[in-house]
């Protein structure tokens, strides 16, 4: 072990040297633990002002993690070694990102994978003429990890998608432009700079030795990268290559064809989730670990290592097809892991949460909160059991003494009745978060009642359906005070990918009904267009390929296409079994029209959509079907 890593204190610096030059300083599990131990010891050592981390030899700072042992144990069906490695490594990555003293990394030669984790999260990241930084994990059946998705999600435009999917190597100017490095210092100045840091303990010495960074080639191609890698899903990016042929598109597609489709699909999903919310390294690592935890057993990680490292035939046999990656497979890889939560050195205190309404949505949401380490007590009028959630006999029992009480209820009348029961027993200063979709008047009435009793109310309806509740990808539209929002946001981040504070109480419900009015109208328009295309003799796949990459693109066609066998997997591919039931869309459209009437707002398209869904649900066969089942309805109808 002493030969693999050298840890010393010199002058005012702690110095860590990765010392496996023949293995390109690949990071072993023992090296990770040794780095963490040193950083913990130096954190409060008054004699250590800063930390230097470097790699021995001329070829690499650190070309990745040592994955040979993961392959040996994984092929034997022993998955815990790899999972423990990742948990401890990710704890180290987060620790380095929040370390209270400067960490100066010298990134010469190859810095890849695990090397990014120990080299690119510190406060001062130095590159030189030989630097080549990349995240090549999709080529071996993994997502970019060790906090790499945090850096990728923070890169300009769609550069993160491009770098994550293609593993393009960044030279020094590119690395600085993309946010993986900070300063360019010519390599022949490095020893002088290190000596100055050791002697003074002052990172301002870096300024003296810095030189202008070389021009970034990635910056020159930014517009092109944005154009081709701006798709929501992997299929959208592939469609763009076809719709806009070019040498760049051909070269990019050639790389994507070599990589694992599942890993690339999950990489895109992680980046989009991070970018839609407020990216943090902890949230990035949590999402990455959901994938890596399952990578041996449910992914193609072992096959990727075999092809790249063991047999070196460079011909991995991936289990999913690039052109037909099931979205459900991506969703499964990124679901919270029951009973497991990454432990960081600055761990948040678990909250006591009451959850009332454990139906199709609420049950998944409560489970995800419990999986994240919170103490969740649930109640539902039906006798349901949710993994990790303690049962309460009444709503009052579920609410008493809790830090936060969350409700997921069918309508405003039931919300008012439940509020009458639980608000008087809730602790002063606790938060009452209603995630139901109800009328604005009910939301505001309950908020006033809560405030009068010293409880902080938020109305936080959700978008994303049962699949989003299960996968933890909901969007929350939140009304209430800034203080209440700040207290509940960590919970929204567990249950979803984005939470938007929309203003005072009732504004969350207002945002939800406006959003779903748009959704109802656009789904009808999408179904009408497909039915028209059929009758004009236009192939549905051609219709999708054009519209999904043109001005007619929308969530209704790109992510939830109502035409079976076209686009990403959706309820239309499952005989329209509901992901979001037509009767729920009717409820939301009626709420929008009630609100429009109350506010004296003219919403003719919303009114027409509400009437169309009323006919579909009440007079036809729409009850119990997905709201996208409007398509076969229009296909069978003639112009009146």
UniProtKB/TrEMBL annotation:
Catalytic activity line of the entry: a (3S)-3-hydroxyacyl-CoA + NAD(+) = a 3-oxoacyl-CoA + NADH + H(+); 3-hydroxy-2-methylpropanoate + NAD(+) = 2-methyl-3-oxopropanoate + NADH + H(+)
Domain 3-hydroxyisobutyrate dehydrogenase-like NAD-binding: 506-631
Entry's Gene Ontology BP terms: L-valine catabolic process
CDD domains membership: crotonase-like
Residue span(s) of domain Enoyl-CoA hydratase/isomerase: 14-322
Stored InterPro entries: 3-OH-isobutyrate_DH-rel_CS, 6-PGluconate_DH-like_C_sf, 6PGD_dom2, 6PGDH_NADP-bd, ClpP/crotonase-like_dom_sf, ECH_dom, HIBADH, HIBADH-like_NADP-bd
EC number(s) on file: 1.1.1.31
Keywords: Branched-chain amino acid catabolism, NAD, Oxidoreductase
Functional pathway: Amino-acid degradation; L-valine degradation
Keyword Phosphoprotein among UniProt keywords: no
Pfam short name (any one): ECH_2
PANTHER family tied to this protein: 3-HYDROXYISOBUTYRATE DEHYDROGENASE, MITOCHONDRIAL (PTHR22981:SF7), 3-HYDROXYISOBUTYRATE DEHYDROGENASE-RELATED (PTHR22981)
Family (UniProt): Belongs to the HIBADH-related family.
Protein name (record): 3-hydroxyisobutyrate dehydrogenase
Lineage start: Bacteria, Pseudomonadati, Pseudomonadota, Alphaproteobacteria, Rhodobacterales
């Amino acid at each position: 072990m002493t030969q693999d890593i050298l840890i010393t204190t010199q002058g005012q610096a702690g110095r860590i040297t990765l010392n496996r030059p023949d293995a390109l300083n690949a990071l072993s599990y023992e090296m990770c633990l040794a780095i963490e131990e040193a950083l913990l010891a130096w954190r409060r050592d008054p004699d250590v002002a800063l930390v230097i981390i470097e790699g021995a030899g001329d070829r690499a700072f650190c070309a990745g993690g040592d994955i040979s042992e993961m392959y040996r144990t994984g092929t034997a069906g022993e998955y815990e070694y790899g999972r423990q490695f990742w948990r401890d490594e990710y704890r180290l990555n987060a620790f380095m990102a929040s370390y209270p003293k400067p960490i100066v990394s010298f990134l010469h030669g190859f810095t890849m994978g695990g090397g990014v984790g120990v080299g690119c999260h510190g406060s001062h990241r130095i590159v030189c003429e030989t630097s080549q930084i990349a995240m090549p994990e999709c080529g071996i059946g993994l997502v970019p990890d060790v906090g790499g998705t945090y850096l990728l999600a923070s890169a300009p435009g769609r550069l993160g998608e491009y770098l994550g999917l293609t593993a393009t190597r960044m030279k020094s100017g590119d690395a600085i432009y993309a946010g993986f490095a900070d300063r360019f210092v010519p390599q022949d100045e490095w020893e002088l700079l290190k000596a100055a840091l050791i002697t003074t303990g002052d990172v301002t010495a870096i300024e003296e030795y810095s030189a202008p960074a070389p021009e970034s080639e990635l910056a020159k191609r930014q517009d092109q990268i944005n154009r081709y890698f701006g798709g929501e899903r992997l299929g959208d990016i592939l469609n763009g290559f076809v719709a806009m042929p070019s040498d760049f598109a051909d070269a990019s597609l050639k790389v994507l064809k070599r990589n694992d489709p599942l890993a690339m699909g999950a990489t895109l999903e992680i980046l989009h989730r991070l970018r839609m919310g407020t990216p943090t390294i902890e949230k990035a690592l949590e999402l990455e670990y959901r994938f890596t935890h399952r990578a041996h057993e449910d992914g193609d990680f072992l096959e990727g290592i075999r092809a790249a490292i063991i047999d070196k035939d460079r011909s991995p046999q991936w289990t999913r097809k690039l052109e037909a990656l099931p979205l459900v497979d991506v969703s499964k890889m990124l679901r919270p892991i029951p009973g497991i939560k990454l432990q960081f050195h600055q761990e948040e205190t678990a909250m006591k949460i009451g959850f009332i309404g454990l139906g199709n949505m609420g049950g998944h949401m409560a489970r995800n909160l419990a999986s994240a380490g919170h103490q969740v007590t649930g109640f539902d009028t039906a006798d349901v059991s949710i993994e990790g959630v303690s049962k309460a006999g009444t709503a009052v029992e579920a609410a008493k003494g809790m830090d936060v009480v969350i409700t997921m209820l069918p309508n405003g009348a039931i919300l008012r009745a439940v509020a009458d029961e639980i608000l008087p027993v809730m602790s002063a200063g606790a938060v009452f978060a209603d995630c139901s979709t109800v009328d604005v008047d009910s939301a505001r009435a309950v908020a006033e009642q809560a405030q009068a009793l010293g409880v902080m109310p938020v109305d936080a309806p959700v978008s994303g359906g049962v699949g989003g509740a299960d996968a933890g990808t909901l969007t929350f539209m939140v009304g209430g005070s800034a203080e209440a929002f700040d207290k509940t946001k960590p919970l929204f981040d567990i249950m979803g990918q984005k939470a938007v504070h929309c203003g005072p109480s009732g504004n969350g419900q207002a945002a939800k009904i406006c959003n779903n009015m748009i959704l109802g109208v656009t789904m009808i328009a999408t179904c009408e267009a497909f039915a028209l295309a059929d009758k004009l003799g236009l192939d549905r796949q051609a219709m999708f390929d054009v519209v999904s990459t043109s001005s007619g693109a929308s969530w209704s066609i790109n992510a939830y296409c109502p035409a079976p066998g076209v686009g990403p997997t959706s309820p239309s591919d499952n005989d329209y079994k509901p992901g979001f039931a037509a009767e729920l869309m009717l409820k939301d459209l009626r709420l929008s029209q009630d609100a429009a009437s109350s506010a004296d707002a003219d919403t003719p398209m919303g009114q027409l959509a509400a009437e169309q869904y009323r006919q579909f649900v009440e007079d036809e066969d729409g009850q119990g079907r997905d709201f996208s089942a409007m398509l076969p309805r229009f296909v069978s109808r003639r112009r009146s």
